[in-house]
Amino acid sequence: MRNNLQLVTRKLLLAVLFSALTETVTAEAREVIHKGDAVVMPLRGEVAPSLLAFLRRAVKTAENNEASAIIFEMNTYGGRLDAAADIVNALNQTKIPTYTFINTNAGSAGALIAIATQHIYMAPVSAIGAAAPILPTGEDLPATAKEKTISYWSALVRGSAIKNGHNPDLAEAFMNKDKEVKIGDRVVHPKGAVLTLNAQEGTEKINGKPLLAEGIVDSIADLTKKAGLKGNVATIEPTGFEQIAFWITAIAPLLLLGGILGAYLEFKLPGVTWPGIISAICFALFFLGHYLAGLAGWEVVALFVLGMVLVLIEILFFAHTTIVFGVLGVFLMLASLLWTMIDRYPGQNFFPTGKMLAMPLLNMFIAIVGSFIVIALLARYLPRTSIYRRFALMDSNPPGPSLAGMPRQFATALALAPGMQGTAITVLRPSGKARFADHVVDVVTEGEFIAPQTPVTVIQADGMRVVVKSAAQA
Fold first, then answer.
1. 199 and 256 in a common domain
2. Which CATH number do you get for residue 96?
3. In a domain? residue 127
4. Which of 201, 128, 127 is nearest to 161 (CA)?
5. Domain boundary among 217, 235, 253
6. pLDDT tens-digit map of 155-178
7. Does 422 lie in the same domain as 328?
8. In the chain, how many H helices and how many E strands?
9. Are 229 and 248 in the same domain?
10. Which pLDDT tens digit goes with each residue over 6-19?
11. For the segment 354-394, what is each residue's pLDDT rounded down to a tens digit?
């Protein structure tokens, strides 16, 4: 029954991974971008973290293929400000020209994203603005929170507007009803309400310069013509897995914790494979989610696999001679996990610093500390459980006489007592077999790993439960 369950689990994992890879490859196949192309990215629906995952991948794809421009076709009434902040940050790092085609709405958070692009065009019937922060329920923020939020976002949106060549007062007025917009002697927008512009108002020229948008266009083709973009137009669409990529990256510490604990239990429970399967699933989801979110490539997976191979070489061949392979392997695995979570854009420094490292390091810290705590608890209490002893006795029995399965009165005739010396004849991880005199006995350690042919000492004998320790440490 257990073998059938394991087989089904393996097949399910392979099916999920194959489906993900197939969809990813299909998406990449239809996103053939050549140097000089104008890349169109749809920004539709709610501004949410899943939109950030798609936009991050799309921007990096366009930059890596040396596109001539990125055009965001926008139709959104807004959404979460935290997601908008991350999107604005991503756009302000972009190295190629950025355009927004408002078709038909750029409301609330959408207006902030549009300000983060260098050129804005509007459909004949469209609007931008009304970016005042509100609660998820639609109600106004409390007075103090509202003041702090508007102050922070006003500074952020003004900086973004200045960087991209827009009027900073106009950008601030989208979210601050107390901001007056005045150009020369003309008051464009008085205090008292947040600013919203339609296409005709946004493209009005004052002193020879458009108020915000550079023109009114009917389509992407019309925009490329008026903007003077010469290359072909290529469209990048979000994949189905990008809708869940954010949720995978959000639980990265839990996936790392599950992967580490699964690997630990795989070594500690002889004859059991389900912890290894769980570990593989956790690490596969970790890498796959960050790949689909545009944070990592397959090279980090290769680095992780190389590290794992070095650790296995250390365990299987050099357990008591050197630690070089093990230390190098663990370093490569940790480095690959950390590098996977770093949001690095083309043209940035190779070695990440500051904010780029903050969240990955926090996730890694949570996972490692959590693993140490859980492993310490497992090492102390797991060997005492009936479930563990049931799995521990599944290990293969070595040849020769054994006390296992013999009548209790015969087993106690050996009179095992604390201090008695013997030799481990199987790997104790922490359970296994040890020989005392002419008898083979099922033993368990307090959690440590003991290699075969290592002298051991009994430290506790409670009925048929015999706890041993390496004689060198006794």
1. no
2. 3.90.226.10
3. yes
4. 128
5. 235
6. 889 999 999 999 999 999 998 889
7. no
8. 16, 17
9. no
10. 444 444 444 444 44
11. 666 776 778 788 888 888 888 888 777 776 666 665 555 44
Quick check: is 20 in a domain?
Answer: no
Residue-range definition of the domain harbouring residue 52: 32-235
Q: Which phi and psi angles does 261 have, rounded to 5°?
A: -65, -40
- The CA distance from 392 to 269, in Å, is 6
Contacts of 363 (CB under 8 A, 6+ apart): 252, 253, 256, 341
Q: How far apart are CA 456 and CA 435, in angstroms?
A: 9
Same domain, 291 and 217: no
Q: How far lies 397's CA from each of 271, 443, 444, in Å?
A: 12, 12, 15
Rounded to whole angstroms, how far apart are CA atoms 122 and 154? 23
Looking at 65-214, list the stretches that DSSP marks H as alpha helix, in order from N- to C-terminal side. 81-91, 109-115, 143-163, 168-173, 199-202
Give the helix/strand (H/E) hosting 339: helix 324-340
Q: Which helix (H) or strand (E) holds 390?
A: helix 386-392
Q: What is the DSSP string of 188-247?
A: EE-TTS--EEEHHHHT-EETTEESS-SEE-SSHHHHHHHHT--S-EEE----TTHHHHHH
Residues 162 and 262 in one domain: no
Dist. CA 298–CA 364, nearest whole Å: 20
Nearest to 170 by CA among 202, 139, 198, 138: 202
The answer to whether residues 228 and 318 belong to one domain is: no
- Whether residue 430 has a cis bond before it, omega within 30° of 0: yes
The tally of domains found in the chain comes to 3
Tokens representing residue 44 in the block: 């539709």
Asked if residue 81 is part of any domain, the answer here is yes
Q: How many CA atoms lie within 13 A of 305 on its CB side?
A: 7
Distance CA 198, CA 403 (A): 87
Q: Is the pTM of this model over 0.85?
A: no
pLDDT at 398: 46
The answer as to whether 21 is a domain residue is no
Nearby residues of 55 by Cβ (< 8 Å), 6 or more positions away: 41, 43, 87, 90
How far is residue 31's CA from residue 10's CA, in Å, rounded to a whole number? Answer: 32
Tell me which of 170, 200, 235 is where a domain ends. 235
